[in-house]
Amino acid sequence: MYILIRALGAETLKLKRTLALRLAFIAPLVVPGFILLAFLGQDGAYVESPPENAWVGFAQMVNIFWSLLILPLFITLQAALLAGVEHQNEQWKHL
Description:
Helix content: over 70%
Distance between the termini: 15 Å
């Protein structure tokens, strides 16, 4: 168990100031932000419907955009960034 904790600590130090770590927190917030801006730009098209329907529509749009468009790109970008961190200075040999 101690070895696993040391390995996780080493991985945490490697990712401390990388773009991959920032992207892991920023990317999930981008899609709802864009959809919220799109909803606000429709000049009250969702005002006539009950608020529950507006929230369901918002959640469905976030789900659709995230799963079909952003998730495949996000996985590919994260894999490439983490591979770059691991292969930089041959750090994969140290673990």
